[in-house]
Every structure is written in C-alpha cells, then in structure tokens.
Amino acid sequence: MMRNLDDIQPESPQQGFQFPGVFEITAVGNGNADLVERVPLHIASLGLNVLEGSVRSRPSREGNYVSVTVSFTCPDREKYDAAHEVLRADPDIRWTL
Predict the structure, then answer these.
(1) Which terminal Cβ of the chain has fewer Cβ within 10 Å, N or C?
(2) Does residue 10 have a cis peptide bond before it, meaning omega lies within 30 degrees of 0?
(3) How confident is the model at residue 21 (pLDDT cuts 50, 70, 90)?
(4) What is the pLDDT of residues 58-76, one digit of tens each?
C-alpha cells in the first residue's frame, strides 16, 4: 500500500528535520545554464546562508544535465520549503532533492 508523504512521521523525535539546522539541497537542470553559480544565488536570495565551499556539481554523462548541491543554514520549515520553491521556479531547473 502506498502512503501519502505528508502522512509519514518520524518514529522518534530524533528522526526527521530539526530546525534550525544545516541542510543540503540538490537542483538538477540544464547543463549549459550556469546552475553552479545560480543555485547558491537563489538560496541566498531568501536570506539563507550558503555554507562556504559547500557547492558541488556533477554533469550527466552526455553533459546535457548537471546536478548542483549546496549546504545552507535554515531557521524553519517554511524557509526550507521556500528554497525548493525558488529553485523549481527557475525554468532551467527540472527538479530538486
């Protein structure tokens, strides 16, 4: 039986997201769209602190896509969700993890 993601709760208080905290987000998108520079700027535009040296990228085999991962500090769930939203609003980003 498939469960709705919103219904999944941590089994103990130590599991799941703990705010404030440091989180990682990955954006996957067009390989020629300068996402290595743009992803941290999107996160910073929300007033979130991207950790120095945390930006990592990996191109797809053919180079058509790139995944960009950054770590950032986040005070609450609303800002975390906003980080995903701002990235997904970029037309060159296909999805976020």
Answers:
(1) N
(2) no
(3) very high
(4) 999 999 999 999 999 999 9
Separation of alpha carbons 82 and 9, rounded Å: 21
**pTM listed for this prediction:** 0.82
Residues 40 and 50: beta-carbon distance below 8 Å = yes
If DSSP codes are grouped into helix, strand and coil, which group holds residue 3? coil
Q: Comparing C-alpha atoms, which of 57, 54, 77 is closest to residue 66?
A: 57
Residue 12: Cβ-neighbour burial (10 angstroms; 0-12, 13-18, 19+): exposed
Give me the count of residues in the chain: 97
How many angstroms separate the CA atoms of 50 and 72, rounded? 4
Q: Which two tokens stand for residue 78?
A: 């609303």
Residue 38's SS3 state is helix
